[in-house]
Amino acid sequence: MQRKTVIPEDANIAENQQKVMKSNNDNMTQMRELWDKQKILKSIPFHIEKEVQAQAKNFAYILWGIIFAIILINHVLVLVSNGRWDLSNLTLPVILLLSLVTWSRLLVLGEKIQVYTYITFVGTNVAYLWGLWIVRSLRNGFVLFYSLLYTIIYPPAFFAASRVANTLGQTLLHEYKEQMQSLSTVMSSSLLGLAPAVMYIALDAFGISSLNLKSLDDVCELLPGAVAPVNTDFGWYKNCTIDKIELYYLQDVTPNTTIMEIELRNAIEAYIPGGPKALATMLQACLLLIFWVNSQILVRVCRLSIRDVYALRTTFWEMTLLIASVLDLIVLMTGSSLDMAPRFDSPRDYLNFAYYVILAPSLVLLFIILSAMYMLILQGKQVVELEMSKEYDPEKYRKSCQYRAVWIIHKRGMEMGKAKSKRDVEEFTPII
Question: What is the pTM of this model?
């Protein structure tokens, strides 16, 4: 007869409790492992962001070093060569290009970009201007006007421009907060793609100014009464002024005209257009970079599309910016290709036309462009304030003439799917 083994009830309970405790411990271990993995996964974007920001800072340090090296080389060459080796027509567009590349790459810093913006625009430009002021003072003596211009007037202007650049950066941060790293890469890459065109135009301006020095020496060598320099390498002719050039310029060729007079006339006609043409060409290179900034403002801040331009659904300042930019480019292209002969009777007539009819209106148009850029950035800031406000009141902006442009930009954002919330779409009333 088979015997049954009876296990006490207390033993079964203890065994079950051990199994339950072991199962709970296994579950807790799995939960800890899962929690650790989630913490690691959550920390990966943070570490990536920190690494990207560190790379952007290192990139900025390198470009700042290059900019300051360019400034130092330019001023040293001007000082050593007595002003004959002036690279300003080449270095100014290059410095502006590198500053914009640095700023666009530093956009990944987000709210921390402000200090770096001041260094990028204020620090580099003030270093260039103060170096220019020191070199000018060493060469020509202390001049109160240039001292006030370089030390008091220009630095606050660049400081104000840096504040506007910070406002633009904050607006872009609101528009592309989740894609700021890719946006920074796209913007800096597009600038680097624009660099060959800028360098080509800047080198053209530098070539014109360099050849103009040889033309000046040819004029002074043939000009009666001009005194040759002692230092033939870095010296300047004395008594070779624009008044004497104007006096000895031969307007009409007669049978009694000598070969030397004809050579002097040809040398004057080659020399006089050089300065205005080099300046107009250099401004074209800078204007190309300003066009790039304008495109970022119109597309990314004002949310303007080609369809809006064709349908004339633009604000006043947007249309002002577009028209002034086209006009300024036409004026500068005209100035960079304008020769003296045979349109002008004397060097003074050419210089008056070049400076007062070409370059002065160009600078006025440039001021209008910069003013329009500032107003559009300010309107973009107001759009950010509207979309981030807790007391969202679209009717205030839609019905107000003062904020009409702000409402139009906000409306474009709704059409592009950038509405702040579902409530924006529900409360949106199209402009008729």
Answer: 0.82
Q: Quote the tokens at residue 266.
A: 């040809």
Whether the Cβ atoms of residue 362 and residue 332 lie closer than 8 Å to each other: yes
Residue 83, Ramachandran bin (φ over 0: left; ψ between -120 and 50: alpha; else beta): left
- Phi-psi region for residue 429, left (φ > 0), alpha (ψ -120 to 50) or beta? beta
Q: Which residues contact 367 (CB under 8 A, 6 or more apart)?
A: none
| Tokens 């010296």 -> residue | 235
Q: Which residues pair with 238 in a beta bridge?
A: 227
Q: Which residues contact 14 (CB under 8 A, 6 or more apart)?
A: none
Euclidean distance between CA atoms 413 and 379, whole angstroms: 13
Which amino acid, 297? I
CA torsion angle for 175, 177, 182, 187 (degrees, to 10)?
40
Residue with tokens 């462009």: 369
Count Cβ neighbours within 10 Å for each residue of 157-174 and write b for 16 or more, e otherwise: ebeebbebbbbbbbbbbb
Per-residue DSSP letters for 50-68? HHHHHHHHHHHHHHHHHHH
CA distance linking residue 383 with residue 14, whole number of Å: 69
Q: What are the CA-CA distances from residue 398 to residues 136, 401, 407, 428 (Å)?
A: 54, 8, 6, 10
In order of 79, 91, 146, 147, the CA distances from 137 in angstroms are 10, 21, 9, 9
State whether residue 26 is helix, strand or coil. helix
Q: What is the 3-state secondary structure (H, E, C) of 383-398?
A: HHHHHHCCCCCHHHHH
Tokens of 250: 């031969």
Indicate the DSSP class of residue 107: G
The secondary structure element, H or E, covering residue 222 is: helix 180-222
Show the tokens assigned to 254: 């007669």
DSSP state at residue 227: B
**Tens digit of each residue's pLDDT (9 = 90 or more) over 122-179:** 888 888 888 888 888 887 777 788 788 888 888 888 888 899 999 898 888 888 877 8
